[in-house]
Design goal:
Elements lengths: L21 H27 L3 H27 L23 H22 L6 H27 L35 H25 L5 H22 L6 H12 L6
Helix pairs in contact: 1-2, 1-3, 2-3, 2-4, 3-4, 3-5, 5-6, 5-7
Length: 267
């Protein structure tokens, strides 16, 4: 698998006296916190991965995470901005027993890539300083490249079903009376965007549920364990609510079952 190479970012500002804006501070903070957490989790995954293709994928992801943390820290240091108290080696036990099958790592990476892209994508039109803008554009481009590798592996290894195929409409249709009907009267089929978002929500909740279930079995704090269990129940309820709709197609039902069956939760 192709290794994602880093690029050399410009170290000069748009203006030598230009300060970080509130938007730039906020997005850099979010980037630092999210990637410091990912660094811990991916380092743990890397201790247990066996599949060589998935191992290379994890290596690519970990490399980007380390780079994002370092670059964010460098920018903040230049501004004498206090470095956020992110996640560190003290927050992860790399010697812990294996909790997941290798294939779960691919689903997890897709989950966190979507979260990262939402930060970087929103940041790009909000930042104006040259070095910060270049950094977020690079974050977006490299994360999209990683997402491409993730989706290729998911399809090559038959680990996921694509969103369902629906008939091509034969005419343009406008919103009409009854368009938002629930269960009473005529209920129209789901349109493409609704299916897309529901598919995405099932994917996210199934991945979250697996992660929460695994962590709930090894966490030391009983208080935190209860929070994990509440989270598991919440994600399970969300999935069930999406799946109980009578007008859901069989492809999505198959997808949800497949996503929940791939995880080896504990030893």
């Amino acid at each position: 698998m192709e290794i994602i190479n880093s690029i050399q970012l410009g170290s000069t500002k748009s203006n030598i006296s230009e300060k970080l804006t509130s938007a730039e501070m906020g997005k850099l903070w979010a980037t630092y916190m999210g990637n410091s957490m990912s660094k811990c989790i991916l380092s743990y995954y890397f201790q247990h991965v066996v599949d060589e293709v998935i191992k290379t994928l994890l290596e690519n992801a970990l490399k980007l995470t380390v780079e994002f943390v370092k670059t964010t820290k460098d920018i903040l240091k230049k501004e004498n901005y206090p470095i956020p108290n992110g996640f560190s080696e003290e927050d992860v036990n790399l010697g812990a027993l294996r909790l997941f099958e290798d294939v779960y790592y691919v689903h997890y990476l897709k989950y966190v890539c979507k979260a990262g892209m939402s930060i970087y994508n929103v940041a790009v039109p909000l930042v104006y300083r040259k070095d910060v803008k270049e950094f977020f554009i690079y974050c977006m481009d490299s994360t999209m490249a990683l997402m491409g590798q993730i989706n290729d592996i998911l399809m090559d290894k038959e680990l996921i079903n694509k969103p369902p195929i629906i008939p091509v409409p034969d005419k343009v249709e406008f919103v009409h009376q009854g368009f938002f009907n629930g269960f009473l009267g005529h209920v129209r089929p789901l349109h493409a965007l609704e299916i897309a978002h529901l598919y995405d929500n099932i994917e996210n909740n199934a991945t979250s549920k697996a992660l929460i279930m695994a962590f709930s079995q090894v966490v030391k704090s009983e208080k935190i364990r209860k929070l994990f269990i509440e989270g598991k129940d919440l994600t399970h309820k969300s999935i069930e609510q999406y799946m109980e709709k009578r007008f859901w197609c069989k492809d999505l039902k198959k997808f949800a079952v497949t996503r929940q069956s791939i995880v080896c939760l504990c030893h």
